[in-house]
Model the fold of this input.
Amino acid sequence: MGGGLRADRRADRRDARDAEEHTGRDAMTTTIAFIGLGNMGGPMAANLVKAGHAVRGFDLSPAAQDAAREAGASVAASATEAVSGADVVVTMLPAGRHVKAVWEEILPACAAGALLIDSSTIDVDSARAAHAMAEAAGCLSIDAPVSGGVGGAAAGTLTFMAGGSDAAFAEAKPVLEAMGRKIVHCGGPGAGQAAKICNNMILGISMIGVAEAFALGETLGLSHQALFDVASTSSGQCWSLTTYCPVPGPVPTSPANNGYEPGFSAELMLKDLRLAQAAANTTGAATPLGAEAAQLYALFAGQGHGGRDFSAIVEWLRGMGVGK
Ligand code: NAD
Done:
């Protein structure tokens, strides 16, 4: 399909959306290829199906393929087959090298003018390289990593942080809205990944800070609830305390009340902290606490805790005390 025809199709979709706003009906279906149907991609693809899109998925794992079929997607025999004739392609893969390899493979089969959305969490350099590959192939692209975890993916309440041109973002927004609640355009190519790793560096550092405060409070005879009641309404207030409290009790929905089942695993936190460190090394930014947090999570995960929720680091910190 030629670029002009693709542009026409995009214009048709815009008209259809306008019509939909007036009539409340789904006037035109978008064909979406979804590559990487794992813990996050599986439920995200299912929400695209629920929103009325025609979803053609692909994953290397037969179990992920079966789950996608059950959710109402069709499953292609290869990534290349999945993208052929698709208006939009979403990738949700483990790391930058997977995204670059898959994009390299699929771009020759993508229609000119197609929109590629990468929602994986990857390094900023790989994200920018992927954008350049898409541009060279005459495709639109955005990096759109997410926060909200597996629960948010299933509920369709993810936050998307997007990087790319205004035109690409305008095309992507309605697709992302079927999978998330908050969609933020953070800037040009790579800006979504930049926002993601900066946010998660705050999260890793703040979780360690909150965990250290509870561990210190315990040694001083302070109850968890008393510290929570004070800090949650004082200057120590933060998400790691008030929404995701690392000790059982004060926040009943936090993983601490569920044996530290993730949630968000220590392994994934370590991945994001390492991405932040790689970016800091490239740009020369000073991130001493980010570096320390990466080192602590590396030790924690290295001692067999990688699959636990990242807030379980409180137990490990307790164990590091000298116990006077
Ligand atoms: P996952 O391992 O469950 O899923 C990745 C999927 O990609 C797997 O099913 C794998 O088979 C598939 N895959 C790998 N290479 C492929 C290829 N060449 N072609 C087709 N499929 C391929 O991981 P996940 O938890 O779904 O995470 C995906 C991304 O989302 C990661 O970048 C992760 O950092 C990010 N993320 C995860 C969470 C979370 O809570 N799990 C939260 C936010 C962001």
Remarks:
- The beta strands are 31-35, 54-58, 74-75, 88-91, 115-118, 140-143, 146-147, 158-163, 180-187.
- The two ends are 73 Å apart (CA to CA).
- Residues 35-41, 58-61, 64, 79, 92-94, 98, 102, 120-121, 146, 149-150, 264, 268, 271 surround nicotinamide-adenine-dinucleotide (CB under 6 Å).
- The chain has a mean pLDDT of 92.
